[in-house]
Structure formats: C-alpha cells, structure tokens
Amino acid sequence: MEVFTEQEGHVIEGILRTPDRSLWYPIFQGVPCFLSGPMQPDLTEFCARHGLQKPAAPPSRPEAREQAKTNQTFSDKWRRFKQYGLQPEHKEFLFGWYCKKLGVPDLAALKEFYGSKRRVLEVGPGSGFNTRFIAENCPGEVFALDVSDAALTTFENTRDLNNCSVVQADLMEAPFEDNTFDFIIADGVLHHTPNTRSAVEALYRKVRPGGQFFFYVYRKMGAVRVFSDDYVRQNFMPLSPEECYAACEGITDLGRELSRLNATITLEKPIPVLGIPAGTHNVQRLFYYNFLKCFWNEAFDYETNNMVNFDWYHPHNAWQHTNDEVEGWLKELGVKTYAFNDANPNGISVLLTKPAA
Ligand SMILES: C[S@@+](CC[C@H](N)C(=O)[O-])C[C@H]1O[C@@H](n2cnc3c(N)ncnc32)[C@H](O)[C@@H]1O
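# S-adenosylmethionine complex -> structure
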C-alpha cells in the first residue's frame, strides 16, 4: 500500500499494488476500489494528481457490463439518500423488520446475535445504517462491500467506528479469502446481480465452516403483480434516475392515498389464480402485493417513499424467485441447516449455517 493522504486513522487516498506490481487499485474517499472494466470509475484525475499511469485493464467478465447498468441506479440512489435508516424515525420500522428476517424476537436478541460474531461482512450495505448497527454491537471486525458509490456513503456513515472497513467491489469478485466470515448478510442485494444463484454461491464460499449466511431476495408474486412489475420496469428502466423519480411519483401518491384510507375488506373466498388468499385484507396491502407495487410508509418522508418505488422499478436486474428454487440452490451447495423466515410476502429471507468442516 502507498499512502497519499491519511485522516483519523483512515487512508483517504492511496493505492494498493499486487505483489508483482503489475496491477494497482485506487483508494479514494477512504475506500479501496477493486472494480474493473466498465464498472471502473474514471481515474484520469486521480492518476494526474498522483503522477500515476492508468492501471492496465484487468480482464473483465461479460456480466460486468450488465452489473455496470445496475450500478448507475444505486450510485445515484445512495448519493441522494445518505441518511436512510440512520434517522430515528426509520429505525423502529427497519430494525423490527431485521428481527423478523433473522428470526429473532426483539432488538436485544438482535444485538446479542451480533455480539457473538468475530468477523462479519455486509454485502450491499446501501447507506450503511445496518453496517453501523452491526459494528456497534459486534466485538470483532466488520466489513462492508458494495459495488456502487454506496460504498462511499457507507464509509462516511461508519468512519468513526474503529472496527469497520469498507471496500468497493463486485461481490462476484470479493477481495477476501474463502472461508473467512462468521456471518455474511446480503439484504435485498443478490437479485440485483446478473445471476442470483451464482451470487449466493460466490458469497457462500466466503463463509467459514460453521458460520452463517443471511440473504433476502425478492419472491415471485402472483400473475398480475408480475405482469405490472415487468410492464412498469420496461418503461422506467431506460429513464435517467431523475426522470424515473419523477415518473414514480404517481405510483407513490397512489400508495399514500390507499394507505390513508386505512380500510380493510374481507374476501370469503380465495382467488387462487391470482395467489390471493381468503380473509381480511388491508386495502393498500392487498393492492400492493397483488396488483401494483406502490410503497407508502408514514415513517418516511415523501422523497424516501418515492425512492423505495424507484428502487423497485429502475434497477437493470431485479430477479424474483420461488421458495423451491432457493431451496434447490441450498441443496446443491450441501446446506443442511437453514430457516426461511416469513418476514413479508414480497421476499424470501434465508438464514443458513455452512456445515462445519
Ligand atoms: C436495494 S440496495 C439494498 C441496500 C441495503 N442492504 C438496504 O437494505 O437498505 C442494493 C445494494 O446492493 C448493491 N449491489 C448490487 N449488486 C452488487 C454486487 N454485484 N456486488 C456488491 N454490491 C451490489 C447496490 O449497489 C446497492 O447498494
């Protein structure tokens, strides 16, 4: 490592060279960046500032071009919403949801869960609110890895914690030894890669034998919801982030108005062809889960609610999966111990343990 600038124990600018010195990776804004090919940021100014030759382009995988498109969505999102999840009014909702996803009863149990880990990796941390919570409650080392500029936001939001490091890299090429982590968490991330199953496998390799891995991926919804997801995505994906935020506003307004109705209806008979069960349904939830994703939660301001809808409709990749499909992947990996925690109808939450060697 060559250090150019340092602040409060962090290398803010520098480079990492491979042992044969044929390649180097930049560290800027406090974050080592291991991206290559179409995902690599423009290093012209960095090279000029430090008298460096641009690094020889390392071989880039064909999927990197696809991943680069997804990065545009998330770099934009996490540059705008830097405080997501860190504001007190977000925490109750988000950490309540984490408890359900990880299958623990309450916040105290969630803290205890992290208290027993020595080396944790959060993949796709977004703003880093969860990385921060993990690092505050884990006695060991915590790492965060994100492929987009979310890595820079996460660094800003965790830099005061001395057990936390952030890298910018594609999870398919995570710069860590295999069998390293006690716990890896990838919440709402793997379905945004070119291939969710390959992403599960790539991270599973990094878990130590006997360690645990949590991931949450989108669940395949009923026929009408799948149709409207595809239709709206086809129309919104080609838009610039700015245009897409504007286009989402009508959908966000619809979510707000349905939610403020605060109404329920009772269906005596199920509608199996659409995947709708019988019973009493909140009207907004019924519409949201079965017809059109139109998120609204009073805990968030208008822009944040609209961002959640943007996050659904804009990314280049956003795969949806079934329980059987995910269970098949786990079997192929030789996983024997796992739980599917039913946190909401929209996603599949998996907590697995890698067999001890
Ligand atoms: C929907 S956000 C979720 C953020 C956070 N986990 C949360 O729940 O708020 C998805 C994140 O995954 C990251 N991501 C997507 N593909 C990735 C990849 N191949 N490697 C690493 N991070 C990735 C994105 O950059 C983005 O920050």
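# post-check
Residues 241-261 form the longest helix (21 residues).
The CA atoms of residues 132 and 158 lie 6 Å apart.
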